[in-house]
Design brief:
The structure holds 2 protein chains of 2 kinds. Chain A contains 11 helices and 2 strands. Chain A has helices at about 1-35, 45-60, 65-85, 95-120, 145-165, 170-180, 180-185, 190-210, 225-235, 240-260, 270-280; strands spanning about 135, 140-145. Chain A has a two-stranded antiparallel ribbon with strand order 1-2. In chain A, strand 1 (about 135) and strand 2 form a beta hairpin. In chain A, helix 1 (about 1-35) packs parallel to helix 5 (about 145-165), helix 5 (about 145-165) crosses helix 6 and helix 9 runs parallel beside helix 11 (about 270-280). The longest helix of chain B has 27 residues, at about 195-225. In chain B, helix 3 packs across helix 10 (about 195-225). Chain B is built from 15 helices and 2 strands. The chains are: A mainly alpha, B mainly alpha. The interface of A and B includes residues 39 and 105 of A.
């Protein structure tokens, strides 16, 4: 009985650690899909690019992923803003249908580039930190790498939340979300604000990619599973709610870990989608949101 | 559709049936893919094109068709013709269930819900080892006998395409077809006019599922085995949509044009550019969305309307 309890608690802790990275991915999507209503099917592919940037720094210059993720964020911010400016802006007035197809095409392009540059090989960036364990009491163990990435992602998530809620830019962005036309009338540069916001959302998923690098094998299609997952977080957290998506990320992390503890690893991914379908059909406003789907 | 066009289409499909007389196995194999994806594209077009509901989860029905064949025939010992009937019934029933949940949602949420359903089925097929053989998969019975040549599959795929084409042509000019298009243009107005939007969308979804499932069975029977990642692949949901889009979503012949172009291009690119083909495919895709949003057939139709008007 007692060991059962400790194993469950360990799973919850591990879930929170993974979940903090999901939170960053989810917050990025909350900005892009929740606030700007851009249905971004390239989220996972952008994450993959972030991982390769971090991997290159690690492989060529020996920079640890726990520093390299900053470069990934910078590269992806530029890439994201450029993608919005060059492609998405052009079809902003057309249906969501077109946005879905365009972002699918963009994802396909990025995966194609990664395939050419790095081939389909599985790569891994080992960090000494992930092998150093911290024992909490007699029953719980956590590794230093996960703890560090948890601390970093909590700090970044808080910073991002404050930036969107308090800064002038964040207010402008939320004004656009409420009424695009009125926002432009009071002097907000709609296109530039949206480009920056898109870049920011992509930078967030890039950060997460960099921090996930030590934990995952890297290959061009590694992001595939994170597309739908990030939509799950936005819907679960409530459309337009940045903090909701962050909390939903933690929830998913814990639920996935508990599922693999009790039913086996292979069922963990299904639970995400079942939660998603339940939320969509029973409580479409999400757990924290107020807007109706 | 005018009588002249109907004759033209019939002649076209008739000519396609003669092709194996003149071509070798490799070419017939490529054309089998073209015909199969044309059928899948036509099926998708009923929901995605005419009803305007972007389903990205048609892999669910493809996979159901692919798995129903070995499950009903080999595991339960049901004879092949009856298996085919049951396979269609299963897919239609699945579409009824999925549609009932997914059609409560609109726009991107509908698309996301359909993907989620397909993914749940894929992961379940991976995990239910006793039933589906898990990742090892199952052997799929040969629909046309153990030594059937590729030509038999090609001809069935052409017949499936012809059936999907005829069904679409009949629907488009029917009361049901007009209701579908009204829902696409403006769902709220359509409902205000007394159209039961939920019902017509669901019916289109069920018809579409039936054709997609037969396509899945045909495809996997040719390969002779089925695994979850091939039968329920997200790619199988996206490709029919892309084929239909390039040709022209909501046009009768668009999916066929799209399938011919994309499936042959993919085959050629694979041979010419090897690893770069995925990148080129992505670039093409983006260009189509940016510059040919109505698809090839849709753009030509608009151009001809303009000409006639002036």
């Amino acid at each position: 009985m007692a060991t059962q309890f400790w194993r469950a608690l360990q799973a919850v802790l591990d879930g929170l650690l993974t979940g903090s990275l999901y939170s960053l991915i989810g917050m990025g999507m909350a900005l892009i899909f929740g606030v700007m209503r851009i249905v971004n099917f390239a989220h996972g592919a952008f994450m993959m690019i972030g991982m390769y940037v971090t991997y290159l720094l690690f492989d060529q210059l020996g920079v640890t992923p726990y520093v390299g993720f900053l470069a990934a964020a910078a590269v992806l911010f530029v890439l994201g803003a450029a993608t919005y400016h060059g492609l998405l802006r052009r079809i902003a007035e057309r249906s969501e249908f077109m946005t879905i197809l365009l972002t699918l095409g963009i994802a396909q392009m990025m995966i194609g580039v990664a395939q050419l540059a790095f081939s389909g090989d599985f790569r891994k960036a080992n960090s000494a930190l992930t092998t150093r364990l911290l024992h909490v009491g007699p029953h719980l163990t956590l590794n230093h790498g996960d703890l560090l990435s948890f601390a970093i992602s909590v700090a970044l998530a808080t910073g991002m939340f404050l930036f969107v809620m308090k800064s002038r830019f964040g207010r402008a962005l939320r004004a656009i979300a409420q009424n695009r036309y009125a926002a432009s009338l009071i002097g907000i540069n709609v296109q530039r604000t949206q480009a920056v916001a898109f870049g920011l959302g992509i930078a967030a998923v890039g950060l997460a990619g960099g921090l996930l690098l030590p934990a995952l094998y890297l290959y061009p299609e590694v992001g595939a599973g994170y597309n739908l997952r990030s939509f799950v977080m936005v819907v679960l957290g409530g459309m337009g709610s940045i903090e909701g998506a962050a909390i939903a990320g933690l929830v998913l992390g814990v639920v996935e870990n508990l599922t693999s503890l009790y039913w086996g690893n292979q069922w963990a991914a299904i639970v995400d989608f079942v939660i998603f379908l339940l939320v969509l059909s029973l409580k479409p406003a999400g757990l924290f949101g107020s807007q109706r789907v | 559709m005018t009588r002249r066009r109907a004759l033209l289409a019939a002649a076209g499909f008739g000519l396609c049936l003669l092709v194996p007389l003149f071509q070798g196995d490799y070419h017939v194999h490529v054309m089998f893919h073209v015909a199969l994806f044309a059928a899948l594209g036509l099926a998708w077009n009923l929901v995605g094109g005419f009803a305007g509901q972007l389903s990205l989860g048609h892999a669910a029905f493809f996979g159901i068709g692919a798995y129903a064949l070995p499950l009903y025939h080999d595991k339960l010992g049901i004879p092949l013709p009856l298996t085919l009937v049951l396979l269609i019934v299963t897919a239609v029933a699945a579409a009824a269930v999925i549609g009932r949940v997914a059609f409560r949602l609109r726009g991107p949420y509908f698309a996301l819900a359909t993907i989620a359903f397909a993914e749940v089925l894929r992961l379940s097929a991976k995990n239910l080892d006793n039933l589906t053989g898990g990742d090892v998969g199952l052997q799929v019975p040969a629909l046309f006998g153990p030594t059937a040549p590729i030509q038999a599959f090609y001809i069935s795929a052409v017949l499936l395409t012809a059936a999907a084409f005829t069904t679409t042509a009949l629907i488009v000019r029917s009361r049901f077809g007009y209701q579908l298009q009204a829902v696409r243009e403006d769902e709220d107005t359509a409902r205000a006019c007394g159209i039961d939007a939920a019902r017509v969308k669901l019916h289109a979804f069920m018809i579409s599922a039936a054709f997609t499932a037969v396509g899945g069975a045909l495809y996997m029977s040719q390969i002779a085995s089925v695994v979850p990642d091939s039968a329920f692949a997200i790619d199988l949901s996206e490709r029919p949509a892309i084929d239909a889009m390039l040709g022209g979503a909501g046009t009768l012949s668009g999916p066929i044009v799209g399938a011919i172009l994309i499936e042959t291009a993919q085959e050629l690119f694979k041979n010419w550019f090897h690893e770069a083909f995925q990148l080129i495919y992505g670039v093409l895709f983006v260009l189509v969305v940016l510059f040919l949003p109505e698809g090839i057939v849709g753009t030509i139709a608009r151009w001809r309307r303009k000409q006639r008007a002036s």
